[in-house]
Fold:
Amino acid sequence: MAGNSFGEIFRITTFGESHGAAIGVIIDGCPAGLKIDTAFIQQEMQRRKPGQSKITTQRKEEDEVEILSGIFEGKTLGTPISFLIRNTDQRSKDYDEMKSVYRPSHADFTYQEKYGIRDYRGGGRSSARETAARVAAGVIAKLLLKTAGVEIKAFVSSVGNLALQKDYTQLNLNEAEKNIVRCPDKKVAQAMITMIEKARKAGDTLGGTVSCVVQHCPVGLGEPVFDKLHADLAKAMLSINATKGFEYGSGFQGVKLKGSEHNDIFEKKGNKIITKTNHSGGIQGGISNGMDIYFKVAFKPVATIMQAQASVNEAGDKAVMKGKGRHDPCVLPRAVPIVEAMAALVLADHLLRSKVSKL
Amino acid sequence: MAGNSFGEIFRITTFGESHGAAIGVIIDGCPAGLKIDTAFIQQEMQRRKPGQSKITTQRKEEDEVEILSGIFEGKTLGTPISFLIRNTDQRSKDYDEMKSVYRPSHADFTYQEKYGIRDYRGGGRSSARETAARVAAGVIAKLLLKTAGVEIKAFVSSVGNLALQKDYTQLNLNEAEKNIVRCPDKKVAQAMITMIEKARKAGDTLGGTVSCVVQHCPVGLGEPVFDKLHADLAKAMLSINATKGFEYGSGFQGVKLKGSEHNDIFEKKGNKIITKTNHSGGIQGGISNGMDIYFKVAFKPVATIMQAQASVNEAGDKAVMKGKGRHDPCVLPRAVPIVEAMAALVLADHLLRSKVSKL
Amino acid sequence: MAGNSFGEIFRITTFGESHGAAIGVIIDGCPAGLKIDTAFIQQEMQRRKPGQSKITTQRKEEDEVEILSGIFEGKTLGTPISFLIRNTDQRSKDYDEMKSVYRPSHADFTYQEKYGIRDYRGGGRSSARETAARVAAGVIAKLLLKTAGVEIKAFVSSVGNLALQKDYTQLNLNEAEKNIVRCPDKKVAQAMITMIEKARKAGDTLGGTVSCVVQHCPVGLGEPVFDKLHADLAKAMLSINATKGFEYGSGFQGVKLKGSEHNDIFEKKGNKIITKTNHSGGIQGGISNGMDIYFKVAFKPVATIMQAQASVNEAGDKAVMKGKGRHDPCVLPRAVPIVEAMAALVLADHLLRSKVSKL
Amino acid sequence: MAGNSFGEIFRITTFGESHGAAIGVIIDGCPAGLKIDTAFIQQEMQRRKPGQSKITTQRKEEDEVEILSGIFEGKTLGTPISFLIRNTDQRSKDYDEMKSVYRPSHADFTYQEKYGIRDYRGGGRSSARETAARVAAGVIAKLLLKTAGVEIKAFVSSVGNLALQKDYTQLNLNEAEKNIVRCPDKKVAQAMITMIEKARKAGDTLGGTVSCVVQHCPVGLGEPVFDKLHADLAKAMLSINATKGFEYGSGFQGVKLKGSEHNDIFEKKGNKIITKTNHSGGIQGGISNGMDIYFKVAFKPVATIMQAQASVNEAGDKAVMKGKGRHDPCVLPRAVPIVEAMAALVLADHLLRSKVSKL
Structure:
């Protein structure tokens, strides 16, 4: 109801403000008996954490995850799994100016109007710091999906106006993790890094897109009518800070094709029914069909820039705001594990939901 | 859980297969005391119904809505409102072929795999006929929103590769309902109609986009973290049959801008705080900021074409499928009231949710 | 949210006012492939329907259930199952007096205050007529439970101050359906019938208790912490009109025992672990342990009596109210199938929920 | 879904095993702007904590509540409020025996069967330690209710076969907190204390009842049909460990009255409509009518006794179990704040839900 939970059977609830005592997450509904690789949790946190490379914010947060409950002798108990992440490297003073002035294209104004109060330090609840909790929860989802063979790989597919031209099927997605921008094409990656550094030096920021591919998804995930698999993925992705759009399969380009060009023809391959093409993006009628699921998410340029900007304060009086603090010139590289985590949460939930579809 | 409900406080549940006895909807959580204009219900049904013009399917379904409960002496009781729409013009024989052969890019295969059974007649539950129930429910949502001044206007912004070039602010959106394709630019509308007729004659189909604008939305709708207003809109839109993507505000184009170009600067206008530009699309941090909310939805070309296509049957054997029945060459004109209805359902729900945000 | 739905996975939503067009129910989340015995639906409706014997109300409502969706060729589709029951024998004139005067111990006053409007005819939504929809839905739940071997038997265990003295284990529960008061002890049944007839002649009404036994329930149903099996049963039972209390296992009497007397000792029987005694009522820690689940529900005397009573109208002015219409002198016999239906709904839901408890 | 959450708008999720790192709770949906008295939190924890008197367990747990989020400068932010309570005085060795042997009338067997794994130390998730989190959350609910004038007072109304004979209206409920058994009648309290001490010395345990009165509840709380106020109270109470029954208003005794005796006659008092008697227990048709709400909850004798008992181990082999550890001979005194907390959670939720009932 208040928007801090996600999922139906496999359900997470996150909590915490960026400059409060801690953030964290409760994962409820994970089946008992799942083996938990705690090293994997920390490994995923590393992929999201600030200060990981020269093109991300230089804040230092170790984002150590403390397991409070739900795991016993290395396995899930079937009870709520809770993760706690203390907030450590907070420089709340950097945010004094935000106490009264609304940062452009941030949530300061809308939170103040909605709640009549806000924790102005670093954006409080609206800070992308909240996504650390999602990444931690996503690990449990990924481990559950692994038992069904499902694999999820996200990567940066564009930064500003520089986009990967190759289709994901022409790329080795494992290359993505080998460079700091997380783009599977080495050359394009290098160009992206250069762009981001340039933007950072100019005190400016860049947006871009993250693409994601889900492989080996069983047939039958997704619930008609409202909880179509792609509808839940869309919601999941657009719940991530700074997102502006979502498309799956043929997406916005697909609308330009004719039906005769767009339809995916069925055929038998071994003892499986597959489709020749995959404009459907692995989902038909809202339900996975066994082909690769792929989708793309748009992220706007980071709103905090290191330039003076006009704004107003709570009273509506003019004010000038200059970005302080340590911020990302481009969130895309750090968004990759977040996109994967949200995809994993959607799929884990639908995997469990599919267990009760038929007798 | 099984995906047939939508919304938290203002919550609908739809039911019915396209060739069963009836379809319908229960609307639970509508506040008591709302005046219901029953003529308006039927009026909206007209906008969605088949056979309304030469560019839609020629099926004749009157889609008369019977009110079963929840309304007394012209007002809502605070109890569930139920609408029943009988299925009338069904030619189930047209669908005999579908009994065993999977239609390409339809839900036949995935439903069969998921449930082990399906009502193959006209797609059963996966048929877009289900959206008639949403339009009926959307009327109640629209009436509730009207009490808060909110207005919603959708229109066709592209068909195939022919797109409106003007921004919505340069158009008179009321023009959209004056032509059968529902595009607010008369000339472009005419070209779209010609394109659709041509496709129909070729036994082919077209996709396109619907854009939607929400005006006079109060500040404060939308719940962080997961139920951001745009996240719920994205889910709502992608739950509509045949959709492939969603973007709001600056959308996928916005990612190419720099932060310094993209940020919306606050200023005071009268006693309100507004933004100079509106790349944010009326939503910041997931919460409405009082500016226009605008978004775009991608629809793929209709999968049922009047051409022979290769396919397989349930056993995986090769089969040829030729579209029969009466189908839309392009769903865009009829999708307009559905997009509006889903937007209204999201906003009505968030309007009620916002009532308990603060003391 | 508005209280018209029940269950998590196996979830029903009822609708309808007693004197509106119809009442009905949507059952969402029933697995696909369940065989539906439609005769059984009507048979259960007979057990609840008015006019079934001389000790119930003489209203004549056939309560014919029309299936609108979700069932195809005799099996569930996995899509929402909808049942429609038209309201037929309505004499709304009988209720004209209720338009302004509040009936004592009814919901007239509270509905009016809560909603600012009410359908005063026969209680509208607050009428026990709504339970017809629950009985219809309960049939689907019973059929699902049957696939797991679960059986549910309710019976009248007291009327007024006349209570069955024997424990359920000493009785043949199948005897209950052989008399019109639904008490499994023939002699006690006869005395109850006499009592009810006497009350009816005096224009008065009686309360009582319904007991219910669930046999062959698998181990493992019920979710800690809040959705303990008995907690959900309690809620289910107290959601039935006119109920005042719930106890399971040793109940209110059990609190008088010492721990050493009350504990149920485990032992092995065949290859099963059972308990020697069953004070636990088949539920330990909120989870079924495989023993019989048994519980008791208290029903107050019917509030509508055929005697003059003082009351007030909406303005608070004094008024005299005399019961009109055709009412039950005692709801107990007709409550039996309702108690069973609600128990079935709880158990069916928890049966499905238990499918995702462990890997 | 997995049963660890409670409430719809005002919703809590608890986590933690009794011998894990910590227990805690997230409260989501509390409106922004509520002043939080942190001393009151600790004060309520004192009422529930072990070791508070000679008639409770002698375990020493300070149950200090750390606030992790949701409160800023003394007020709620509208974001999730999180409380963390570390587990400190754990003597896990006391529980080694439980590793393989099932304690009679505990949840060991059912958890093991349901999940295939369990944290056997002190009952793990099934331990009543979890209720500490509820008491902490209940404080926030109480503070919210205070803004509407609502007051909740629970007390011990019976221990074993010794019951308060006076009606709550004849007692000064504030006396309850003045003695260690929390019974508002001094003499009866003393007798209860003597009984409990005697049971403890005998290595045995006692059950009893807690009664609760809610005063100054606004008219209109409670949602028909399934979420009747008393149905939600029943569920809340039966979700507390060791409960066996619930009754409200006239309860199980009321069923013996005739309708003409039981009906509560309306009358005007000042400008309010009240009822002369209150058999309805302040709730009519599931909705509060402004009169006192009162109900009673049955608690079984504590299952852990300091006597040897026969049992079986996981393999079903015979075993002897002798209670070790430090346990309550009677939970009633410590149950009082838990009953109040659960009542507060139900009422706070329904208070918020009532805000959207009408336009």
User: Anything to note?
Assistant: Helices of chain D lie at 38-48, 108-115, 131-146, 186-201, 229-238, 251-254, 259-262, 332-353. The interface with chain B takes residues 1, 9, 29, 31-34, 78-79, 147, 224, 352, 355-359 of chain D (CB under 8 Å).
